[in-house]
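Reopening: structure tokens for the zinc ion complex, inputs below.
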Amino acid sequence: MVGVAVVVEPGTVVVVVDEVVVAVVDDSAAVVATGSVVVDDVVDDGSVLGASAASSGAMVDVQPAQRRHPPSSGTMDRALTATRRYLRPRPKGRRPGQDGLVHGAEDRLEVTLLGTGSPLPHSERAGPSTLVRAGPVRLMIDCGRGSLMRLAGAGMFPTSLTALLLTHLHSDHVCDFNDLVTTRWVMSPGESPLIVVGPPGTRRFVDTTLAMLADDIGWRIAHHDDLTSPPSCQVTEIVDGEVDAQLGWSGTGLRVLVAPTSHRPVHPTIGFRLEYGGAAVAVVGDSRPCGGVDRLTAGASIYVQSVVREADVRAIPSTRLQDILDYHSTTSQAAATAARAGVGTLVMTHMVPAPDAASGQFWIDDARAEFTGHVVVGADLDSFVATPRPRARGT
Ligand SMILES: [Zn+2]
Ligand SMILES: [Zn+2]
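Re-run output (same inputs, fresh job):
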């Protein structure tokens, strides 16, 4: 899954990522067209092909502007600079197949924090979202503000996702859904239904979002001859149990376990436990401590929890803000859950109020009073590889 730049016409460069043409860059390094054309023969080493090699027919349908002069070296430098804005270094062999799985991916369980923010806007923290890569499976858990931008920062586009998992339907956890479903649709060369797993209410949320987008969907279909059907979603609603078998992931070795969490009056809400290669990761979302969270976290290598810091929240003279203490885990409560469950690493996310470099130590100190394991104050794009633990066990 390596992006390449291909010269297609004198003075233009086509930016190709994941076998999909994403942009045509002209000789002023400006994007002059975008497309979603499948490229049959992507060079997988990030190299730039010369003009002759570019006539492979790979980038049909994209109509770059005609140029009278061949590109200068300066043009190429500018175009490549523009290209690199799209691309990040990434491991090879991670293209998703027709089944939505990334065959040949690294055989490990990895968690990346896409967004560690909360409803309060923050310049360096996107809204709540977590990426879990488990061998060939790519799961986005929640899709808060700016999560697609952070997904690009993690080296992925929405077309590479196997599924979206939702812990609950609070707006800060789902507000990028319209962007996700639309962008995946327009970037996919063919039909690519988005699998969505969430609590009851998810189907209605998906349907109403698509209804909200009806005008936009109609305009895009009218404009693009190769776009003939609207975006589609395959929704599974669940509050307790296992979803990997019904979604066809059993052959991947991944188990996805769901349990109810406690976030009333938001109800029902769920958390996820992902088991792969003997390791387990729990991504719990917004919740007070409860039996469901204990089941999800039992013996997990990594426990990702939305957290608020009670002393800081109480110091803010806002009743509305202090209300959040009712239905989130505090630093101390999350750490107590981590200790009870015997997890390896507690990763705090969705932090209110957002800590900075100095105050983050208070959050860690709170947690260490209850939990002797590893504690992390999460930052956007932090990544962790989960390794098996001696006490890891299923729920
Ligand atoms: Zn919430
Ligand atoms: Zn939230």
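The pocket of zinc ion (ligand 2) is lined by residues 128, 170, 172-173, 286, 306, 350 (CB under 6 Å). The chain has two domains: 4-86, 109-386. Marking as resolved unless the reporter disagrees.
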